[in-house]
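Annex B.
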Amino acid sequence: MPRIEAKKTTDAGPLLKLFYRVAGRKYGAVPEPMAVGAHHPGLLRANTVHELMVQRASTKLPANVRELAVYRVATRIGCSWCVDFGTMLQKHDGLDVERLKKIDDYATSPAFSVQERLAIAYADAMSGEQVTVTDEQVAELEREFGREGVLELTYQIGLENSRARMNSALGIADQGFTSGDACRVPLP
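Carboxymuconolactone decarboxylase family protein: predicted structure tokens.
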């Protein structure tokens, strides 16, 4: 149960009801961070627009690289909601979710490519108590993904740090998106 209860549909105005309806259709349930954030309509609108813009702009990295880096942040921060939701998104994108169980062994596991290992290591370096990114690490990422790719990866990792820390602070826990209890959206 989150520290601030989700705003109920019965307490929502017309715009929020529309947001809830769209999210419910897209994900099978209204994401709890949205329902908690609905208590501040201005921030909810800003966040929704921001997330849509980031999604549209993120075109330089392969989806598997981006999604694994974001997933790694969620596991590092310990945001069970982000892990749950991220797993569902990867599953819907047709990515191999079984290997997520091996993410702690990414450096040596044959389940991960060189590109994926680089991105996961970067997520680790950006998501600890202190940022430990090195010049060499960024140079290697730039050789692999180009300048725009490094910026996209950095942005996505930073954004997931923000999401995961906010959800954790508000006590927002997994919602059952991967168990099928909440997500009834058919796989592509």
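The helical segments are 14-27, 32-37, 41-57, 63-77, 80-92, 114-127, 135-169. The chain has two domains: 9-57, 63-169. Further annotation is deferred to the next reporting cycle.
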